[in-house]
Design brief:
By secondary structure, the protein is mainly α. It has 3 domains: about 140 residues, no CATH class; about 60 residues; about 140 residues, no CATH class. The chain contains 18 helices and 4 strands. The protein has a two-stranded antiparallel sheet. The chain has a two-stranded antiparallel sheet with strand order 3-4. The longest helix is centred in the middle third of the chain and has 52 residues. The model has no long low-confidence stretch (mean pLDDT about 90).
Length: about 375
């Protein structure tokens, strides 16, 4: 794996004086850890790679390394632990495990657009973001043309044998040949029925995807916020960005989300308004939407163990819990490591909120 090769290089970049034999043992442990990873381990793995508070890896993850090296004693809070977590993320993405789309979404979302890079691998965000884009682009191809399946040779031979005079003149022989022909015919029919079902399901899935995309485009064209009960153009830009992101996430059928989401959100925000706004702070964004809406949709997530992985939603929730008093800001900074004064554009706010809503939905699946 390329991930294992990069891991060896990262040891040198971090200035860790680790013996070559130990690095080799870590590489074996990494291979085992990536293959034994489960969906439930993803939040802890991402939190460890990013050095986030209140998100820890399960003990079973570290056992993959100690099984290869009985002297393994890496503290989960050390830089080496972050290195091993980052390398495992890269290995899982590289191997395209069943939950790799979920892992890519979780890492990119928690990285906050790269503002919180992996401690031991500053290139990991770029690689995982590409994997997320690839996942969003997958499955968009048209169904392939149906291919004709010729009669198998065994069926032809069985039918030919049934047509021979011996089959008509000798009942026992005729029954045997008829049984063989019917068996081959049933297998041929079953094979065609299975191929038809696969083809029909591919067509149905394609139509469902087209219908879903058409509904999204109609939503963009209409420019109407169901949550606010008014056009997005009549909402302040910051509130429009948050609500549009949440509503678009509800219309996204896959874990990874829509490839066109940034463009769609930008279209919603630009329609019907003059864009003269300056970048806004996280603190300003956290108090922009209606407080009742924030309490309903964001406050519960802000109290969960994974709150640090969804910083914008957490900011919205903490602010609503504090009745928009400023005392939520120190708590937010301690929890996420992000200053409430960090400035982002309306588009950055929207896409981050969009990814967080997708991730929150994935957490509860």
């Amino acid at each position: 794996m390329e991930a294992i090769k990069r891991m060896g290089v990262q040891y040198g970049k971090l200035g860790l004086a680790t013996q070559a034999s130990l690095i080799e043992a870590r590489a074996e442990g990494l291979a085992a850890a990536s293959q034994s990873m489960t969906r439930e381990s993803v939040p802890g793995l991402v939190g460890c790679a990013l050095g986030l508070k209140d998100v820890s890896l399960q003990e079973s993850f570290w056992s993959s390394f100690s099984a290869k090296d009985p002297t393994f004693d890496v503290d989960p809070r050390d830089r080496e632990a972050a290195l091993l977590a980052a390398s495992t993320i890269a290995a899982c993405i590289e191997s395209k495990l069943q939950f790799s789309d979920y892992l890519a979404l979780c890492f990119v979302t928690a990285s906050f657009g790269g503002m919180r890079p992996a401690i031991a691998d500053d290139q990991l965000f770029t690689r995982v973001e590409k994997a997320l884009v690839d996942a969003q682009s997958a499955g968009g191809s048209e169904p392939e043309d149906r291919r004709y399946t010729k009669q198998p040779q065994a069926l032809k031979q069985a039918l030919d044998a049934l047509a021979q005079p011996a089959s008509r003149q000798q009942p026992a022989t005729g029954v045997q040949h008829a049984h063989t022909a019917l068996t081959e015919l049933a297998a041929y029919a079953e094979s065609n029925a299975l191929a038809a079902a696969v083809n029909d399901n591919a067509i149905l899935e394609y139509l469902r995807r087209l219908e879903s995309e058409m509904r999204v485009y109609w939503w963009v064209t209409g420019g109407w916020s169901a949550d606010a009960g008014k056009p997005f153009a009549e909402l302040p830009l910051t509130e429009a960005a948050v609500l549009a992101a949440a509503e678009l996430a509800d219309r996204s059928a896959t874990i990874s989300g829509l490839f066109a989401a940034p463009a769609l959100l930008s279209m919603v925000l630009e329609r019907g308004r003059q864009r003269t706004e300056k970048p806004l702070s996280i603190a300003a964004a956290a108090t922009a939407p209606d407080r009742k809406w924030r309490k309903k949709f964001c406050a519960p997530a802000a109290e969960e163990s994974f709150a640090t992985l969804v910083p914008i939603t957490t900011a919205l929730g903490l602010a609503s819990i504090s009745e928009d008093a400023a005392d939520w800001q120190p708590r937010f900074e301690r929890l996420t490591g992000l200053a409430p004064t960090i400035e982002i554009s309306a588009e950055q706010l929207a896409i981050q909120m969009y990814r967080e809503q997708l991730l929150l939905r994935a957490f509860h699946e």
